[in-house]
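Deliverable D2.4 — example input (C-alpha cells):
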C-alpha cells in the first residue's frame, strides 16, 4: 500500500518547455502523475506562466505543495540574449536552424547578467558578464556592433570596467 499523502510536503520538478505553448502531456505524465496532478492542467498552467517567453525554450520550475502546482520561470542566459534580440516569434515546426545574427546593447548584457548573477558561479559581476558575452558569441549576435569576444578581451585587460553587483539571495 502506498504511503499516506503528506499535504505539507513540497516537491520540485524542473523541465524544459517552449514559452506560451502547451507541451505534450505524455512527457509531463511520468514526472507529475505520481504526485497526484493532472498533466493537462499543469500543461495549461505552464503555458499561462510562460506567455512572456513566447517561442523560446526555457526551464520551468514547478513547486508542488498540497496537490497544487505553481509555475516559476528559470530563464537561461541564451533565453535572455535571444529575448534581448527582440526577434518575432517563429513557428518551430516550419522554420529551422535560425541564425540569431542581430545586435544587442551593452545595457541588455548588464541586465541579463544581473538576473543571472544569483545562479552564476563567478566570483565577481565581471565574470557573470563574460558568461553572458560568451553566450552571445555562441548564439552569433554582436554587442553594440562589436564581436562579444572583443568585449571579453577588453574586460580582461581592464579597458572596460564592470561595476560589482551582489544579487539578492534566493532560497
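Example output (designed residues):
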Amino acid at each position: 500500500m502506498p504511503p499516506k499523502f503528506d499535504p505539507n510536503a513540497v516537491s520540485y520538478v524542473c523541465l524544459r518547455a517552449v514559452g506560451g505553448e502547451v507541451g505534450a502531456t505524455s512527457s509531463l505524465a511520468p514526472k507529475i502523475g505520481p504526485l497526484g496532478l493532472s498533466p493537462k492542467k499543469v500543461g495549461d498552467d505552464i503555458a499561462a506562466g510562460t506567455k512572456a517567453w513566447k517561442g523560446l525554450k526555457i526551464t520551468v520550475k514547478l513547486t508542488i505543495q498540497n496537490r497544487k502546482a505553481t509555475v516559476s520561470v528559470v530563464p537561461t542566459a541564451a533565453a535572455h540574449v535571444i529575448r534581448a534580440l527582440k526577434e518575432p516569434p517563429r513557428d518551430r515546426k516550419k522554420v529551422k536552424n535560425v541564425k540569431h545574427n542581430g545586435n544587442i546593447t551593452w545595457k541588455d548584457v548588464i541586465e541579463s547578467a544581473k538576473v543571472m548573477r544569483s545562479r552564476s558561479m563567478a566570483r565577481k559581476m565581471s565574470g557573470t558578464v563574460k558568461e553572458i558575452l560568451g553566450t552571445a558569441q555562441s548564439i552569433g549576435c554582436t554587442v553594440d556592433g562589436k564581436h562579444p569576444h572583443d568585449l571579453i578581451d577588453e574586460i580582461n585587460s581592464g579597458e572596460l570596467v564592470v561595476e560589482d553587483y551582489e544579487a539578492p539571495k534566493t532560497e
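The chain has a mean pLDDT of 78.
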